[in-house]
Write a structure and sequence with these properties.
Layout lengths: L11 E2 L4 E2 L3 E3 L12 H14 L4 E7 L17 H15 L4 E6 L12 E2 L13 E2 L2 H20 L4 E6 L4 H6 L14 H4 L1 H14 L4 E9 L8 H14 L3 E6 L19 H7 L7 E3 L6 H9 L5 E4 L2 H4 L3 H6 L17 H5 L28 E5 L3 H12 L3 E5 L9 H4 L8 H14 L3 E3 L14 E4 L3 E3 L12 E3 H5 L8 E5 L3 H11 L9 H8 L24 E5 L15 H10 L3 E3 L3 E6 L2 E6 L2 E5 L3 E4 L3 E3 L4 H7 L3 E3 L11 H12 L3
Parallel strand pairs: 3-4, 3-12, 4-5, 5-8, 6-7, 8-9, 9-10, 10-11, 11-12, 13-14, 13-16, 14-15, 16-27, 18-25, 19-20, 19-25, 20-21
Antiparallel strand pairs: 1-2, 17-26, 22-23, 23-24
The structure holds flavin-adenine dinucleotide, NADP nicotinamide-adenine-dinucleotide phosphate and iron/sulfur cluster.
């Protein structure tokens, strides 16, 4: 079969070994590393990705010693005893023609524990723990620990290691002037600051021999003040090549950087220009990364000569079969990562096991089993939002006879509103995926049909996924013509004036503020616009790509006020890894965020409220209600009377704090059992 992805699927010869395609599954800390039975679960997780066709996998970061821990007792590789456990993983991956490297990650001052160390005593802005500068002896023993860790990885059956030299971790802390203020031979001039990574690589190569992959993750664009200049990055790449690395992977941005690098509003492949600049400077293959989530994008990067290989991480949580589907020219069947971070990074940062919003099986492969049913049933699913779609497609895939009834004229439920928000264009992909899956698994779809309880008798099982109804707060004047619901706004049912107050500052309040403030193109679709908006110098004349570069906020369309009753930070409920981006972006558009509000009344003058016992009137044209939601469960009891096998899921089951992650997870788990 001819392939649509000739460059992506082309083997890469590393001399002593060949990778079967140009795709690396990038390193992700999943939390499985630290749980009971974690190695068995990791083996299953990695095996599914190897079976799915990826050429090279890199594990989550493993520390070479306890000081390098990301958090207390996080995973380290320091003994044969631990290495033996890793064999479960390497054996599982090697059942297929895939290769796997172990990432060695020393967190340095990012370590969330009191034993962390760094190049100098400069506390990290994102850890509450102080840090201690390594002594000369400490440096030597850390290098020894990297070497020991590599030898143990080899013993465990890994095909190689990836040395984590980017994202602001220890090695990066030695390289950058920002964090390395030493005046011994490991500090001062650049040539001294890069001794630490070079010693690590040289010593590892010496000990592991030639036939063992060494990847170096090089911070090519630090995105922090005091980061490296482009010439310095090139110098280090050349020295790394001499020191014996086989592949150089691209690192973009330190964790403390204030530039979004992987969230959904970052344009696809937004940073491949950085790797492209390095092409030709060294002869080892270069890997590019960040916001690459479809085989089409990956193929384009390679065919345009931006890199020799691409790294994708989260797309393999979303769909372990990504590569096999690309090989079969069925990319429309790929469950696309929408870069929401909600179940992966947000979980990792909260110490929870990572998974995926669109694929709850990720990292739960031993727990949620979707197998063929021996007793097919006639199932009706009511409501084609994320919950109904997930249930219907999962049950139908298992062999059940599924009918999906939706009262509106399209599938998607609230995702049809989410996808309209500038920066959330990826949500279209989830709906495309479900559409393809409904057809593939022969789900009978009835749009423009309202389900009535009397219809429940016709089926063996009834699944109500009827979603939510927006909450209407009890405020005097709530029925005033100035008051509209977020649904009317996002469905373009009303023409909104130039001054607007939003009641409620949860996920939807923020999204509506983004929608209403937006003017012109979405910067998520234009790399150049995005870089200007956030102040990244694509000519790379600025240190770290940002030093002294002024961000250029996008133009705004309206004066917006975003209000909440709680006294805490406005937007505190947003995702851990994305909330700051939303707050930053709206502040740049001069959206006024007001907390501790006591709503008084709405009338012709606008919105009247109290704050700290003082009265305020917002003279606005419209007041948009984004005050949370209630379950739309009114037909449940009567359906249950008609058919005792009636189940209720998603927002219809529980609306408070219900998001798509919870809705899909509940639906898939339930459909896996029916
Ligand atoms: P819904 O999506 O509400 O779907 C219910 C469906 O049932 C609807 O299509 C409705 O027409 C249909 N229906 C109702 N009654 C009947 C009936 N009697 N007969 C037939 N059909 C019926 N969540 C996130 O996790 N991340 C986000 O970034 C995010 N962004 C959002 C942005 C916006 C603007 C909005 C509005 C929501 C967002 N959400 C987000 C929330 C997320 O979309 C919801 O949590 C999710 O859609 C709930 O899924 P559901 O299937 O339970 O309900
Ligand atoms: P939400 O996040 O629960 O926010 C509801 C807001 O309404 C809060 O700010 C709340 O703040 C306010 N509120 C609640 N009751 C009120 C009342 N009686 N009167 C006035 N204000 C009231 O819900 P949502 O914004 O509707 O979002 C629904 C779901 O979709 C959530 O689970 C959310 O996580 C998810 N979502 C997620 C994203 C994302 O980017 N991850 C985006 C959109 C939606 P006060 O009580 O302080 O006033
Ligand atoms: Fe991608 Fe969101 Fe899944 Fe993470 S949770 S892998 S960002 S779709």
């Amino acid at each position: 079969m001819s392939t649509n992805f000739p460059n992506l699927l082309k083997p890469l010869d590393l001399g002593f070994t060949t990778l079967k395609n140009r795709v690396l599954m990038g390193s992700m800390h999943t939390g499985l590393e630290e749980v009971k039975n974690g190695y068995v679960r990791m083996a299953s997780y990695f095996e599914a990705r190897a079976k799915g066709g990826v050429g090279l996998i890199v594990t989550g970061g493993i520390s070479p010693n306890f000081r390098g821990w990301v958090a207390p007792f996080s995973s380290k590789l320091t003994s044969n005893r631990i290495a033996k456990k890793h064999k479960l993983i390497t054996d599982a991956v090697h059942k297929y023609d895939s290769k796997i490297c172990m990432q060695i990650l020393h967190s340095g001052r990012y370590g969330y524990h009191p034993f962390n160390v760094s190049a100098s005593n400069i506390k990290s802005p994102i850890s509450k723990f102080k840090t201690k500068s390594l002594s000369e002896r400490g440096i030597q023993s850390t290098i020894n620990d990297f070497v020991r860790c590599s030898k143990l990885a080899k013993y465990a059956g890994y095909d190689g290691v990836e040395i984590m030299g980017s994202e602001g971790y220890l090695i990066n802390q030695f390289i950058a002037k920002r964090t390395n203020k030493r005046n011994d031979k490991w500090g001062g001039e650049y040539i001294n600051r890069i001794k630490f990574p070079l010693e690590i690589v040289k010593r590892i190569r010496l000990e592991v021999g030639k036939e063992f992959i060494i990847i170096f993750r090089l911070s090519m664009l630090d995105l922090v003040e005091g980061g490296s200049s482009w010439d310095e990055v090139v110098q280090l790449a050349k020295e790394l090549e001499k020191a014996g690395v086989n592949l150089i992977n691209t690192g973009i941005g330190w964790h403390e950087s204030r530039i979004p690098t992987i969230a959904t509003m970052v344009p696809r492949a937004a940073f491949s220009w950085v790797t492209k600049r390095m092409m030709g400077e060294v002869s080892v293959p270069l890997i590019t990364t960040n916001r690459i989530n479809t085989p089409e994008i990956a193929e384009k990067i390679l065919s345009n000569g931006h890199a020799d290989m691409v790294s994708m991480a989260r797309p393999f949580l979303a769909d372990p079969e990504f590569i096999n589907k690309a090989i079969a020219n069925k990319s429309n069947e790929i469950n696309t990562c929408i870069a929401c971070n909600q179940a992966c990074l947000d979980h990792a940062f909260k110490g929870k096991i990572a998974s995926c919003l669109v694929n709850p099986l990720a990292c739960h492969e031993t727990e949620i089993i979707v197998n063929n049913t021996k007793t097919p049933k006639r199932i009706v699913v009511v409501g084609a939002g994320p919950a109904g779609l997930s249930y219907a497609t999962t049950a139908a895939k298992r062999g059940h006879n599924v009918t999906l009834i939706e009262k509106s004229n399209s599938i998607g439920g609230q995702f049809n509103m989410a996808k309209k928000i500038p920066g959330k264009e990826e949500f279209y992909e989830t709906l495309r995926y479900f559409d393809v899956m409904l057809q593939k698994h022969n789900v009978q779809i009835h749009l423009n049909t309202t389900f009535e309880p009397a219809m429940a008798k016709k089926y063996d099982n009834v699944i109500l996924a009827t979603g939510i109804i927006p909450r209407k707060p009890k405020i005097i004047g709530i029925d005033h013509p100035k008051v509209v619901s977020y649904i009317d706004v996002l469905n373009n049912k009303v023409k909104i004036g130039s001054k607007v107050a939003l009641i409620g500052a949860g996920g939807i309040g923020f999204d509506v503020a983004e929608y209403l403030s937006h003017k012109g193109e979405s910067s998520s679709l234009k790399t150049k616009l995005f870089m200007e908006e956030w102040g990244v110098d694509m000519n790379f004349t600025a240190r770290g790509g940002i030093q002294k570069v002024k961000p250029k906020p996008l133009e705004t369309k309206r004066q917006i006020y975003l209000l909440q009753r709680k006294s805490g930070k406005v937007g505190a409920s947003l995702g851990k890894t994305t909330g700051w981006i939303h707050r930053f972006s709206l502040r740049n558009k001069d959206v006024k965020m007001i907390n501790s509000v006591k709503y008084n009344k709405i009338d012709d003058k606008g919105l009247n409220y109290f704050k700290n016992n003082k009265e305020f009137i917002l003279d606005v044209d419209h007041i948009v209600i984004c005050a949370g939601q209630l379950s739309n469960n009114k037909i449940f009891d009567s359906c249950k009377e008609q058919n005792p096998n009636t189940e209720i899921i998603g927002g219809a089951f529980h609306a408070s704090e219900l998001d798509a992650k919870k809705a899909i997870d509940q639906a898939v788990r339930s459909a896996a059992k029916v």
